[in-house]
Design a protein that fits this description.
By secondary structure, the chain is α+β, with helices and mostly antiparallel strands. The protein has seven helices and ten strands. It binds a DNA duplex through helix 6.
Length: about 280
DNA sequence: ATGATGTCCTGGGCGC
DNA sequence: TGCGCCCAGGACATCA
């Protein structure tokens, strides 16, 4: 469930039970995610109290006492399940770690493909490291047409591909880029540096609208058993183009048909008629 | 340096 | 029913 709206939804779910609580145990079932979960994770987290949670791009930042920071990325198939103290817990296949809180709540990380990451950093300098030091703006906070325009000038690739670059803007992924480009009526094939300042402004606004609506819907639930923390996201029912190959364009007067192409190895869905 | 491609991993869906 | 193939929300390493 890993684009900004889904990560935001997951973060809020974790925040509801974890903020201000301490960890009574940390159980790691499998270390071998995208990168191995560090061996000192258990020692450093057990007994610590969570002070604050943040989301940056597609990462969830868990800030604990003693300047301990844990960073979680859900990869392609990572999910969080939360059990309140009264709920009975059953472990499922592909559950990789379990955080148990002092009030007996449980936070379970589940990830069939194991592309996720769970690693340690330190407060307050966690954002000076690896992905965060070069990461682009938060699309819902300090992103504007003017700074997108500036970022695109040096990019010699199609706009679709460039928007997936987390150093250009953080948090967008394959679904929401397709949806944003459709909203902006911009072809995914356009070279990024050819977009006008005005088009950049529209694209920013469209991206923000799509993200806000998706967050309100609790994110998108694709394929099987997708939950965030008990509730199902339903933004997938509002997709205009993603996974809509051969369906009629939902544009008001457009009689086009949604097409699927491949760019940089990833599927792109768009309307060749109304996206110019 | 930038951009395109391959890779990690498991499961679902489809055609035969 | 079963098998093989293709596809999937991401990001990193590697190569030109």
């Amino acid at each position: 469930m890993p684009e900004l709206p889904e990560v935001e939804t997951a973060m809020r779910g974790i925040e509801r039970v974890l903020r201000g609580k301490s960890l009574s145990s940390v159980e790691i079932i499998r270390h071998d995610l995208r990168f191995a979960i560090p061996n000192n994770m258990i020692a450093l987290l057990t007994g610590k109290t969570c002070i604050e949670l943040k989301r940056r791009g597609k990462y969830i930042i868990l800030i604990f006492t003693d300047n301990v920071v844990a960073i979680l990325h859900l990869g392609m198939s990572g999910r969080i399940r939360i059990y309140d103290p009264t709920q009975s817990f059953e472990r499922k296949t592909h559950d990789h770690f379990i955080l148990t809180l002092n009030d007996q709540s449980r936070i379970v990380y589940h990830d069939p493909r194991r592309f996720g990451m769970f690693y340690l950093s330190r407060s307050p300098q966690w954002d000076e490291e690896k992905p965060f030091s070069t990461m682009g703006p938060e699309p819902l906070e300090n992103w504007h047409g003017a700074n997108l325009f500036k970022a695109l000038r040096k990019k010699k690739s199609p706009i679709k591909t460039v928007l997936l670059d987390q150093d250009v803007v953080s948090g967008l992924g394959n679904i929401y880029v397709c949806e944003a480009l459709f909203c902006a009526k911009i072809s995914p094939l356009r070279m990024a540096h050819d977009l006008s300042k005005k088009e950049c402004g529209v694209l920013v606004e469209c991206s923000q609208n799509v993200l806000i609506k998706a967050i309100e819907a609790g994110g998108s639930t694709l394929r099987d058993y997708q939950k965030t923390d008990g509730s199902l996201g339903y933004f997938q029912y509002q997709f205009s183009v993603y996974d809509k190959e051969d369906e009629p364009c939902p544009g008001k007067k457009c009689r086009g048909t949604i097409k699927r192409i491949v760019q940089a190895g990833r599927s792109t869905f768009y309307c060749p008629i109304c996206q110019k």
